[in-house]
Amino acid sequence: MEHKILLKESDIPRQWYNLAADLPTPPLPPLGPDGKPISPDMLAPVFPMNIIEQEVSTERWIDIPEPVLDLLYRWRPAPLRRAVYLEKYLKTPARIYYKDESTSPPGSHKPNTAVAQAYYNKEFGIKRLTTETGAGQWGSALAFACALLGLECKVFMVRISFDQKPFRKFMMETWGANCVASPSTETNAGRNVLQETPDTPGSLGIAISEAVEQAVTDPSGQTRYSLGSVLNHVMLHQTIIGLEAKKQLAAAGEKLPDIIIGCAGGGSNFAGLAFPFTADKINGANIEIIPVEPAACPTMTRAPFAYDHGDTACMTPLLAMHTLGHAFVPPPIHAGGLRYHGMAPLVCQAIVEGLFTPRSYHQTKCYESALTWARTEGTICAPETSHAIAAAIDEAEKAREEGKEKVILFNYSGHGLMDLTGYNAFMTGKLSDYEMPEEEIRKFTKDLERMPKAEMRKSGRW
Ligand SMILES: Cc1ncc(COP(=O)(O)O)c(C=O)c1O
Predict the structure, then answer these.
(1) How close is the Cα of 413 to the center of ligand 1, in Å?
(2) Residue 337 Cα, ligand 1 centroid: separation in angstroms?
(3) For residue 404, what pLDDT is reported?
(4) In sequence order, what are the residues at sequence separation of 6 or more whose Cβ sits closer than 8 angstroms to the Cβ of residue 425?
(5) Which fold would CATH assign to domain 11-62+110-225?
(6) How close is the Cα of 338 to the center of ligand 1, in Å?
(7) Separation of alpha carbons 292 and 357, rounded Å
(8) Nearest C-alpha to atom 14 of ligand 1 is from which residue?
(9) How distant, in Å, are the alpha carbons of 60, 161, 256, 409, 444 from that of 190?
(10) pLDDT score of 230
(11) Among candidate residues 376, 377, 385, the one with its CA nearest the CA of residue 423
(12) Can you give the pTM of this predicted structure?
């Protein structure tokens, strides 16, 4: 039995997989301020046209440009590992595999899309990228990608994480980026929030408003905005994870997994692993596919499916998704990357179809799972990743109770070596759980009643 299944560089997938081509009911289109579907031109001040083309594409396979592969070879193909020590500890007949995305230079799956986005922007003649970051993983991934391609990079980092994770900022600066706490005084969006709530912990929605504003107001026209999750092209770039995993599982002598798990903030690492297997499920395979979120930010499990803005200042188009409302300010839980109010429209449409079964966990259960993991498998996972591990442990225990030899595959989306303050808070008893009260959800989602209605269309097959 192999502990790690490695692919040769020559086995790297050369095309990304686009789930939009295969979903039985396509996702609803993004809408502009007039409530009508937006045209690609309307996105041009924000993204370069080559990325907009990918955003709206319904082609099943999209070639990965050779120069992007050259960038990805720095850490890809990523290992598929078998969690044998955890299996033994749990005394489970399940075989637990995980795709190790923590081996990239910034330590997560985020550079898979960061290098692609930086490449397409550079090809289009762009000189500077702006972005937001929650936990700092995305900001450091884009800083890394911009350093490789010689682009300037500006990162608005959610205040609470900026304070909790100073080392992520130092990483971004090491790669040459400029990182400020959001809300900042550099943008109208930031100043407005600060005036109303000077002590706000910030949110991804606010940071996105700031980054978009700086991109679209650059008089030189040479700045664009880059998003680390949620949008179709980001999901697309991440599918290299699942495509590699398919080859690796086959090399390990496995057929399709029974259960696939990923944590989901905006949906990208989950989608990256799950979408290529979702195609098999659409074609009849019996796979349970589980995106996991924090109970404190219950987008998929408790929020309505509605049209909403991706940011607090309502600068982005309306997306059809599960959303807690663009004004939502999440409680300061330690999994900073899982505190977004919305979720990728492609992931949400698959949830509406019944292809995915989302679940949520409280943070203390996730940290307990992270400690079990560290003391069996040995590595220290990101707080976001601990949500996937908690679900994998639950499923492995269920397999033990049922006496079934299930194959569980999950995404190890990142390491937690920059997140040790969260571990320390947990181990010294300072973390508590937070269940979002129903009235709180109603308060933040009230505004959505004014938006165009998002119809829940489904084929009824699942
Ligand atoms: C390690 C890690 N995992 C998961 C996520 C969640 O993002 P997404 O749902 O886009 O994968 C983040 C976000 O910052 C992250 O840093």
Answers:
(1) 7
(2) 5
(3) 97
(4) 334, 431
(5) Rossmann fold (3.40.50)
(6) 7
(7) 9
(8) 337
(9) 39, 16, 47, 40, 20
(10) 96
(11) 385
(12) 0.97
CATH topology of domain 76-107+238-450: Rossmann fold (3.40.50)
Distance 264 CA to ligand 1 centre (A): 7
Q: Do domains 11-62+110-225 and 76-107+238-450 have the same CATH topology?
A: yes
Residue nearest to atom 5 of ligand 1 (CA): 337
138 CA closest ligand 1 atom index: 14
| Domain range annotation of the chain | 11-62+110-225, 76-107+238-450
Atom of ligand 1 nearest to the CA of 102: 1
Mean pLDDT on 154-164? 92
Q: What spatial distance separates the first Cα and last Cα of the chain, rounded to whole Å?
A: 35
Its sign, for the CA torsion 341, 110, 358, 87, is: negative
Q: What is the pLDDT of residue 99?
A: 98
Of 103, 231, 338, the one to substitute when testing ligand 1's pocket (max ligand atoms within 8 A of C-beta) is 338
pLDDT by residue (tens digit) across 169-228?
Answer: 999 999 999 999 999 999 999 999 999 999 999 988 899 999 999 999 999 999 999 999
Q: How far is the CA of 269 from the centre of ligand 1 (A)?
A: 6
The shares of helix, strand and coil residues in the chain, as percent rounded to the nearest 5, are 45, 15, 40
For the chain, give the percent of residues with pLDDT over 70.
Answer: 100
Q: Give the per-residue pLDDT at 337.
A: 81
Q: Which of 351, 384, 385, 411 to mutate to test the pocket of ligand 1 (most atoms within 8 A of CB)?
A: 384
Model pLDDT for residues 364-381, shown as the tens digit of each residue: 999 999 999 999 999 999
Task: Categorize the per-residue pLDDT at 135 as very low, low, confident or very high, splitting at 50, 70 and 90.
Answer: confident
- Provide DSSP, 44-110: TTTS-HHHHHHHH---SEEEPPHHHHHHHTTT-SPPEEE-HHHHHHHT-S-EEEEEEGGGSTTSBST
**CB neighbour list of residue 36: distance below 8 Å, 6 or more residues apart:** none
- Residues in the chain, overall count: 462
Ligand 1 centroid to residue 441 C-alpha, Å: 23
Longest dimension (CA), the chain: 64
* Å from CA of 344 to ligand 1 middle: 12
Centre of ligand 1 to C-alpha 384, Å, is 6
Q: Which residue has the tokens 């990608």?
A: 145
Q: What's the pLDDT band for 423 if we cut at 50, 70, 90?
A: very high
Alpha carbon nearest to ligand 1 atom 4, residue:
384
Ligand 1, CB cutoff 6 Å, lining residues:
108, 134-135, 137-138, 229, 263-270, 337-338, 382, 384-385, 413-414
